[in-house]
TrEMBL record:
GO terms for molecular function: nucleotidyltransferase activity. The keyword Transferase applies. Keywords: Transferase. It comes from Sulfodiicoccus acidiphilus. Residues 119-163 form the Polymerase nucleotidyl transferase domain. Pfam families: NTP_transf_2. This is Nucleotidyltransferase.
Amino acid sequence: MGRGHFFDRDVLVSRDGSIYVVIGNAHPPGYVLAYLKYVRGEGPWRGYRRVLKQYGVKNLISSPQTMSLEPCYDVTFPILPVSQLESHLLPEEGFLKLLSRAADRQGEALMELALSLGTKELGVTGSLLTGTYHMDSDVDVLVYGCRRAIQVMEEFKGFQEDVEWISQTARTYGLSIGDAKALYDVRRRGKVKGVGYSVGFVDDRPHKYCERTCRKLGPREAVVEVEGWCDALFYPASAQVIRGVEGKVPSKVLSYEGVFSPLLFGRRKLKVVGMSMDCEGEDVLVLGDREVTGYVKEV
């Protein structure tokens, strides 16, 4: 099978055995945008310990790894030089291997998810892909491509709700329980057979790095009506602005905080606080900037 490019949520193992997770589908020559997730050490992950204990941009930029200011986007990303890369683990291949030997509770949960989602264009990431999972690990499934992403969102009903996710997200992002609950979607996170699961979506096309340049203009707040489909499910999530209600109207909302993605999918009226950016004439309101983390809520 194999492929010669890096997709969002692929897993990389460096020469010193550290484990990284790829960010997005666009990567500069010579290195990959990826965050450090596990290093060798004591812990439940079979000889590894977790470095990034909580998600979110603010936690990510404090990760003990090499960071690079990407001038095209005027933002800082964690990176892994290709020269330090030992192996590239593909979620699609990992999924097929695990499906053929579903012998433990994670394997059984994966089988149940596959029966509901269908097996085409699926992958598995996280500790299941690396083989370092433990009895309480989640099953992180990936769905590839726009057609399959929309199909899953329209047809998959999810399993049991994961109520712990709501309180944890509220703590991590400084949100009220009500605002965190509005971000929850059982199709994307829940529990099956007592095992936590997540369903992520990945564009199946490589993206051109530095396709255009952006510069920061400053913080902005706006109330807008947006419409987002599969681009709202991929990383970074984006939705077109259909109508402005209040404040200066951007043409697009773009989120580097994956947690806000559910509110960008479909057609909604949102209050958005973030960083205003000029991307070669396009006015973009960005969530997840290190200077202005921002937030979005339905109104």
